[in-house]
């Protein structure tokens, strides 16, 4: 009996729904860094305080992700994804009315929690619905996030910068759309969980060679390499995305809106690379794609 991870055809309806949710969530997240110049002016922030805001966001959005993933492995539930998006929506609404650094820090913390909840569980569902095309499935899911992260500065230039900080609240609509789009995914996942609970997994694990775990030393080595690569990648991409707008405004005298358009071009190139990486990895091997992209 084949499960979803070994079936030949990916479940594209599930993958596209997850990609859409990833896109809308990361659009809301990237708006935060895109409006840093506006927040700096409105709240009289220093660059050190901008860095503190970024640190607070990364603590809740990145450092807490492994903890959320660990908890979700122990207690999987179909409603975690809508809950994560609700945290993001609440954070975005708080940002739109923030009048102090403390309130802004709390707002980005809640927004980051949304990412910590969404990413591990959505990644699990992507793997479950990938079939035998895991590279393509991950590419579809990840390009949603990269595309959304690129769209944030563009939409901020259109809807926020000309009108003011309060217009950030408009992006809470993204969370509502994402929650609606995830309803079929949650139903499908709920059925999978109930089906898996009825199966007698011990006998299957003995018979299925693919279920045999890898040696712990090998797993830790692979994870250490991947964590190092992701750390080095994010060290420069996050630094650029957070401070690029300030740099081009100071260096070339462009407006806030134009600096956000330039940030959109940078992040858009990142999204294009994500889209191409999955299918190429399926063809020539994922290790080659990882090493050459770095």
Secondary-structure blueprint:
Elements: H1 12-34, H2 36-43, H3 47-63, H4 65-74, H5 80-97, H6 101-128, H7 134-159, H8 172-181, H9 183-198, H10 201-207, H11 216-252, H12 256-284, H13 286-293
Helix pairs in contact: 1-5, 1-6, 1-7, 1-8, 3-6, 4-6, 5-6, 5-8, 6-7, 7-12, 11-12, 12-13
What sort of overall outline do the alpha carbons produce when their principal axes are compared?
globular
Q: Helical stretch count?
A: 13
Overall mean pLDDT stands at 86
List how many beta strands DSSP finds. 0
Largest sheet: none
- How does the helix and strand content classify structurally? mainly alpha
Low-confidence stretches: 1-6, 203-208
Beta content comes to: under 5%
| Distance between the first and last residues' Cα | 39 Å
Helix percentage: over 70%
Cα-atom Rg, whole angstroms? 20 Å
SSE pattern, N- to C-terminal? HHHHHHHHHHHHH
Can you describe this structure?
By secondary structure, the protein is mostly helical. The chain has 13 helices and no strands. It has helices at residues 12-34, 36-43, 47-63, 65-74, 80-97, 101-128, 134-159, 172-181, 183-198, 201-207, 216-252, 256-284, 286-293. Helix 1 (12-34) packs antiparallel against helix 8, helix 3 (47-63) packs parallel to helix 6 and helix 4 (65-74) crosses helix 6. It is globular.
